[in-house]
């Protein structure tokens, strides 16, 4: 398979590889996929509670080059957006940006799922945190 | 001096040996005759060349020339052997036994026969890649007409115990076909010593041309009969009609002759290079797993899984080396290799597997380069792997509840 230059660029120079502290209430973690399926993505966001803006994003991916590129690109897209803006990110934007062929569309879907999972984790954490604060 | 890309995919196909090309050339040009033209010199020259090649192939496998049927390759040989026996012996029975790790040319042929009313038993393999001989014994019934078990596996290189399997078939009066495409020319294969009744082989897996192969069909003890699957002019003693591919056949013959001369030295050399690669990889990387037994294996094969690294992403990082992977992401169907799945090691290891196939023209320098490059890329991808990180944190991946997918 021939890869687009952008996929190659992200594969060779992945952006924002790493991990944030899962326990940090400002951090939301998404873990999607499964090892038996050959793809697992971990995507994390760090949100500024005052502004709701995503200040940092990190990923680690087990998957093909397109999956790595999709999640690397996703972290770039996330930084500087608000949580609600981030929720609006669609896999098709990733497909277009990376010129993914049809067989690799599911890799971008996985990245979208990872974004949603990270945001949902952040929201649950902070929903729960807010409630605990109220009852205290 | 290293030349790129490095070719380590010699199970997929082998390069043509220049000596083979040289032998073939005249039969494209001045000696273009039809081997079936009985009444002029053009035909005689072609026929003589074909008969010489028949001897060369027969000699490599311990057969007689009359037992060699030329085909278009191992796919056709497998089809002819299995369908031909099933049809010829349909009065005796309709049951065929094969194994889960066979090449598609055997498995899909068997599936086709199931649609035509045959019953097929697909024997599972053990974790080492080999069938259980007791299961084979139990599977044979008085309706069994054929057992088809491959000699050396094209993905994991494991060698089934063909002499023992042949012994069981003999005892029960069942014919044995073996797809020896990957083994012939690489290790000694002798149809007499091994008691093989039918055997498929292919030119392009042994430094010969593509599009030519052969089927060995035993003539004595027992005399095996086949129903032709290609009707026409009655070539190849009626078993395979069609004007003979004279240059291809000459090339196959030359390739067989070379293999016969070079095999002993070559297999020792391939084994040494293979083990050098394996040892280097295993010394530098943790959690690498060899797929299939090392005890019974083609000398030029290494199939290895780099846990927590996905195969296609690894191929991308070593794109100056030509190898193949059992990963789903590299296959059109997005299913990981059925051969690796059949070993029962878990799909995750299939996704992480790479097949290295060493060949006649592989150098030590290429192996050293490959080892260093693979080690480097695996380490880099593990830095990127959430699974590797989780395992290092002490998480048992089998206990994780992975979200629905
Ligand atoms: C074990 C085995 N059988 C059959 C074949 C098919 O051979 P051919 O390409 O000559 O049809 C191959 C090659 O892919 C093979 O490895
Ligand atoms: S992760 Fe398998 S095709 Fe992308």
Task: Provide a descriptive summary of the structure in words.
The complex is a heterodimer of chains A (136) and B (405). Chain A has helices at 5-12, 65-78, 83-87, 91-98, 105-135, and strands spanning 27-34, 39-47, 54-62. Chain A is of the alpha+beta class. Chain A has a single domain (5-135), classed as Sufe protein. Chain: A (Alpha-Beta Complex), CATH 3.90.1010.10. A 3-stranded antiparallel β-sheet of chain A has the order 1-2-3. In chain A, helix 2 crosses helix 5 (105-135) and helix 4 packs across helix 5 (105-135). The longest helix of chain A is centred in the last third of the chain and has 31 residues, at 105-135. Chain B contains 12 helices and 13 strands. In chain B, the strands form 3 sheets. In chain B, strands 2-8-7-6-5-3-4 form a 7-stranded mixed β-sheet, sandwiched between helices. A 4-stranded antiparallel β-sheet of chain B has the order 9-10-13-12. In chain B, helix 7 crosses helix 11. The longest helix of chain B has 39 residues, at 246-284. The chains are: A alpha+beta (136), B alpha/beta (405). The structure holds pyridoxal-5'-phosphate and FE2/S2 (inorganic) cluster. FE2/S2 (inorganic) cluster binds at residues 38-39, 63-64, 66-67, 104, 107 of chain A.
Mean pLDDT across all residues of chain B, rounded?
Answer: 96
**What is the percentage of strand-forming residues of chain A?**
15-25%
Order of helices and strands of chain B: EHHEHEHEHEHEEEHEEHEEHHEHH
Described by strand count, sense and barrel closure, the largest sheet of chain B is: 7 strands, mixed
What is the end-to-end distance of chain B? Answer: 48 Å
Report the principal-axis shape of chain B.
globular
Sketch the topology of chain A as an H/E string, one letter per element: HEEEHHHH
Shape descriptor of chain A reads: globular
Give me the side-by-side strand order of the main sheet of chain B: 2-8-7-6-5-3-4
CATH architectural arrangement of chain A: Alpha-Beta Complex
Global structural class of chain B: alpha/beta
CATH-assigned fold name of chain A:
Sufe protein. Chain: A
- Order of the strands making up the biggest sheet of chain A: 1-2-3
Largest interface: A-B, 29 and 30 residues
DSSP strand tally of chain B: 13
Number of separate helices of chain A: 5
- How many separate structural domains of chain A? 1
The count of strands of chain A amounts to: 3
């Amino acid at each position: 398979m021939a890869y687009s230059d952008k996929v190659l660029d992200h594969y060779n120079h992945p952006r924002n590889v790493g991990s944030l502290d899962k326990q940090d209430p400002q951090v939301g973690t998404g873990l999607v996929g499964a090892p038996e399926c050959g793809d697992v993505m971990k995507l994390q966001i760090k949100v500024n509670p005052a502004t709701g803006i995503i200040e940092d994003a990190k990923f680690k991916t087990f998957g093909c080059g397109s999956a790595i590129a999709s999640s690397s690109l996703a972290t770039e897209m996330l930084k500087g957006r608000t949580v609600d803006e981030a929720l609006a990110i669609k896999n098709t934007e990733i497909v277009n940006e990376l010129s993914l062929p049809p067989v690799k569309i599911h890799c971008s879907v996985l990245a979208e799922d990872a974004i949603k999972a990270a945001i949902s984790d952040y929201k649950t954490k902070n929903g729960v945190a807010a409630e605990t604060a109220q009852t205290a | 001096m290293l030349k790129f890309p490095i070719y380590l995919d010699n199970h997929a196909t082998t390069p043509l040996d220049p000596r083979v090309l040289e032998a073939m050339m005249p039969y494209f040009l001045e000696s273009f005759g039809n081997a079936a033209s009985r009444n002029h010199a053009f035909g005689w020259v072609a026929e003589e060349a074909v008969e010489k090649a028949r001897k060369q192939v027969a000699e490599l496998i311990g057969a007689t020339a009359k037992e060699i049927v030329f085909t278009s390759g191992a796919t056709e040989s497998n089809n002819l052997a299995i369908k031909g026996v099933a049809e010829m012996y349909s009065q005796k029975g309709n049951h065929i036994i094969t194994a889960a790790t066979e090449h598609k040319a055997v498995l899909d042929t068997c599936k086709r026969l199931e649609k035509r009313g045959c019953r097929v038993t697909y024997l599972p393999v053990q974790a080492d890649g080999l069938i259980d001989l007791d299961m084979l014994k139990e599977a044979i019934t008085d309706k069994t007409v054929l057992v088809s078990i491959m000699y050396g596996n094209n993905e994991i290189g494991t060698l089934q115990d063909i002499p023992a399997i042949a012994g069981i078939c003999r005892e029960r009066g069942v014919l044995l076909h073996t797809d020896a495409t990957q083994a012939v020319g690489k290790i000694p294969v002798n149809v007499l010593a091994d008691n093989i009744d039918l055997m498929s082989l292919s030119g392009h897996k042994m430094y010969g041309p593509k599009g030519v192969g052969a089927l060995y069909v035993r003539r004595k003890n027992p005399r095996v009969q086949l129903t032709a699957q290609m009707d026409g002019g009655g070539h190849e003693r009626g078993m395979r009609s069609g004007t003979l591919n004279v240059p291809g056949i000459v090339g196959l013959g030359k390739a067989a002759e070379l293999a016969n001369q070079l095999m002993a030295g070559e297999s020792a050399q391939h084994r040494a290079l293979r083990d050098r690669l394996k040892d280097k990889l295993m010394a530098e990387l943790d959690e690498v797993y060899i797929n299939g037994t090392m005890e019974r294996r083609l000398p030029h094969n290494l199939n290895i899984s780099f846990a927590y690294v996905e195969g296609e992403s690894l191929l991308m990082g070593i794109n100056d080396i030509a190898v193949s992977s059992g990963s789903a992401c590299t296959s059109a169907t997005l299913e990981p290799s059925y051969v690796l799945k059949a070993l029962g090691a878990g799909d995750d290891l299939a996704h992480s597997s790479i097949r290295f196939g060493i060949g006649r023209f592989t150098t030590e320098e290429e192996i050293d380069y490959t080892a260093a490059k693979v080690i480097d890329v695996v380490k880099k991808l593990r830095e990127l792997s959430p699974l590797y990180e989780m395992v290092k944190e002490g998480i048992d991946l089998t206990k994780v509840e992975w979200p629905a997918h």
